[in-house]
Amino acid sequence: xxxxxxxxxxxxxxxxxxxxxxxxxxxxxxxxxxxxxxxxxxxxxxxxxxxxxxxxxxxxxxxxxxxxxxxxxxxxxxxxxxxxxxxxxxxxxxxxxxxxxxxxxxxxxxxxxxxxxxxxxxxxxxxxxxxxxxxxxxxxxxxxxxxxxxxxxxxxxxxxxxxxxxxxxxxxxxxxxxxxxxxxxxxxxxxxxxxxxxxxxxxxxxxxxxxxxxxxxxxxxxxxxxxxxxxxxxxxxxxxxxxxxxxxxxxxxxxxxxxxxxxxxxxxxxxxxxxxxxxxxxxxxxxxxxxxxxxxxxxxxxxxxxxxxxxxxxxxxxxxxxxxxx
Length: 326
What we know:
The protein is α+β, with helices and mostly antiparallel strands. The protein has two domains: 149 residues, Pantoate--beta-alanine Ligase, Chain: A,domain 2 (2-Layer Sandwich), CATH 3.30.1300.30; 166 residues, EpsJ-like (Ribonucleotide Reductase Protein R1, domain 1, Orthogonal Bundle), CATH 1.10.40.60. 40% of the residues lie in helices and 15% in strands. Strands 1, 2, 7, 8, 9 and 10 form a six-stranded antiparallel beta sheet that branches. It has a two-stranded parallel sheet with strand order 3-4. A hairpin with an 8-residue loop joins β8 and β9. α2 packs across α6.
């Protein structure tokens, strides 16, 4: 009888030990998860503070460049803002800052003419820019008729282009929606337009931009890529690559110098410039296990005063696992 009681007591003690061990493990795991979540929040907060500081730093560089460039009157890839900044070490990680000329890309809002004085609505398609955009689509191996759907998305009428789409096409979607009938607000908005798949948008992204000044944001010939210049001038990439190579040591001081390199071409001077007022500031931070990248469109008025960010784009947060560090 006593032996049986001792056996029961031993089994009970073992059960109690097992329950306590299970509870201790559960509490320890919960505490570890809580600590990890807390650290992630701290890292995210630090990354956000660094992003804001990096944006102010970039704005200061652009403002200083505007003041220094008042004598030369140009923006080109030899200037400080365009130079690669090495990764800057910070507590717990590093930060990388880069500045790109937004006017090195084709402003999609230029496809529609701006409103005339005294008119509220935008004008019709801009022949020069529509042709340049179709050429860009062709150079990228995309269907040039995609321009029709974009024009219908931005114009104010309800008449569809040959390969375009108006409200009737979008109301059949699930969920239904209407054409915007206004200028674009971002490149990502293209995803809503007929024919603009994710692959199409990502192919276009390095060459196009959405700026808030339709018809008033010419392409900077000192910073544009050979592909953008070929689309805008309706020439071959081989020819514009030679122009890009020639400007490397001698940036254009005015649009006339650029025009001389395209004999036989009659260019609309309002579509070209040698200065810029919009820039894209990219900031990448890596703090602990958190990696974050953001982009901001920065407007720099003439003279460099009151540099400001117009929009801020941030992809999803990437959490780097411990094993990824190895």
